């Protein structure tokens, strides 16, 4: 299993080529990534550009809230620990506003109580950093397809 953070430092660009070669994958419209680790944010964006037509990024929850409330996304991926507004606060604020977009929480320090609370707030899934990018892509596809079925 190749860990995503390993690719980040060793083979910049490898993820993008790997997923571009899988021509059978369905491409979705848009995703937003929220993380204060800029290197990780940019590498994740590069990998997800093979799955989404548009991948937006921002580095804090408050900025993300403003962007998300004025745009439509198929998926939101947010770090839990960030400045200005944490990922769980972002999730709660979006759900309060009626935004039900699939939401994946990512974190380098998994806290079981926090994970369960985020799921109660409507966070669809949770992944610990570093994570396997193949598993991440599979989760994205399953989540978006389930969301589309539920709302069609």
Structure commentary:
The protein is α/β, with parallel strands linked by helices. Helix 2 runs parallel beside helix 3 and helix 4 runs parallel beside helix 5. The longest helix is centred in the last third of the chain and has 18 residues, at 133-150. A five-stranded parallel beta sheet has the order 2-1-3-4-5, with helices on both faces. Helix content is 47%, strand content 18%.
Shape verdict:
globular
Share in β-strands: 15-25%
Write the H/E string, N to C: HHEHEHEHEHEH
Low-confidence stretches: 1-22
Query: For the largest beta sheet, what order do the strands appear in spatially?
Result: 2-1-3-4-5
Largest sheet: 5 strands, parallel
Helix content: 40-55%
Essential attributes:
single chain; 152 residues; alpha/beta; 7 helices; 5 strands; disordered N terminus
Give me the secondary-structure topology.
Blueprint: H1 4-10, H2 14-20, E1 28-34, H3 38-48, E2 52-58, H4 61-69, E3 75-79, H5 87-96, E4 103-107, H6 112-120, E5 125-128, H7 133-150
Parallel strand pairs: 1-2, 1-3, 3-4, 4-5
Quick summary:
Helix 2 runs parallel beside helix 3 and helix 4 packs parallel to helix 5. The protein has seven helices and five strands. It has helices at 4-10, 14-20, 38-48, 61-69, 87-96, 112-120, 133-150; strands at 28-34, 52-58, 75-79, 103-107, 125-128.
């Amino acid at each position: 299993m190749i860990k995503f953070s390993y690719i980040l430092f060793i083979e910049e660009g490898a993820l993008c080529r790997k997923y571009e070669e899988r021509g059978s994958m369905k491409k979705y419209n848009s995703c937003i990534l929220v993380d204060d680790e800029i290197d990780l944010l940019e590498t994740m964006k590069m990998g997800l550009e093979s799955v989404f037509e548009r991948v937006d990024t921002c580095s804090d929850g408050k900025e993300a809230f403003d962007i998300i409330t004025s745009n439509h996304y198929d998926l939101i991926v947010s770090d839990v620990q960030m400045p200005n507004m944490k990922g769980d606060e972002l999730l709660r604020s979006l759900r309060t506003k009626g935004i039900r977009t699939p939401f994946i929480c990512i974190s380098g320090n998994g806290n079981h109580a926090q994970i369960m609370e985020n799921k109660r707030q409507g966070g669809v899934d949770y992944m610990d950093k570093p994570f396997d990018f193949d598993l991440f892509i599979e989760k994205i596809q399953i989540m978006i397809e389930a969301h589309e079925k539920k709302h069609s």
